[in-house]
Amino acid sequence: MPIRVDIVTQEGPLFSEPYADAVILPGSEGEMGILPGHAALLATLGFGELRVRKGNAEESFIVYGGVVEVRPERVIVLADTAESTFELDAKKAQEARAAAERVMREGVPPDKTAAIMQELRRANLQENIMRRVRNRPPTVRIRESANGDGGNKS
After folding, report:
1. Which of 26-30, 80-84, 141-145 is the least confident region?
2. What local confidence, expressed as pLDDT, does residue 40 receive?
3. Could you tell me the sign of the dihedral formed by the alpha carbons of 7, 49, 80, 94, in that order?
């Protein structure tokens, strides 16, 4: 019995898989694992990695807050912002972190501090997750394992 997974951001649908085996989410209180038949749940998401598993394939995303609605047959992620880990650019993440750190060292007006801290947190998260993904055993992406689009709407 599979579970349907839909990830939607403010920009629109990011990912859809009708036949997932499991979803691992970054809840605001810690990581959650969701399997088909899971009890109904509405929870807030923290910053972290979201993984969708289907057989021996896996898709991985970085989620920057939002909410998740879980039903026994479906998971709907409404992310503030999210991006595929397969599309991240390590060099850009390092440059963004370095720029944010430089601005923090030089001092910023109080009204800009929160935005710079958020940028620094985001860049650090990207680098940490990219490091983890690189150190995992190789997996096949769901998109590559399926016929055609692999369930991806984008």
Report:
1. 141-145
2. 96
3. negative
Mean pLDDT for the stretch of residues 138-145 = 67
For residues 134, 139, 143 and 145, what is the CA-based torsion angle, rounded to 10 degrees?
A: 160
CA distance 54 to 2: 9
Nearest in space to 115 (alpha carbons), one of 103, 133, 124: 103
pLDDT band at 138 (very low <50, low <70, confident <90, very high): low
Domain annotation covers residue 151: no
- Give yes or no for residue 35 having a pLDDT over 50: yes
Whether residue 81 is found in the same domain as residue 94 = no
State the CATH number of the domain containing residue 66: 2.60.15.10
Same domain, 63 and 79: yes
Residue with tokens 């993984």: 51
From CA 128, how far away is CA 33, in angstroms rounded? Answer: 20
In-domain check, residue 152:
no
The total number of structural domains that make up the chain? 2
The Cα 58–Cα 9 span in angstroms is 20
Q: What is the pLDDT, as a whole number, of residue 69?
A: 97
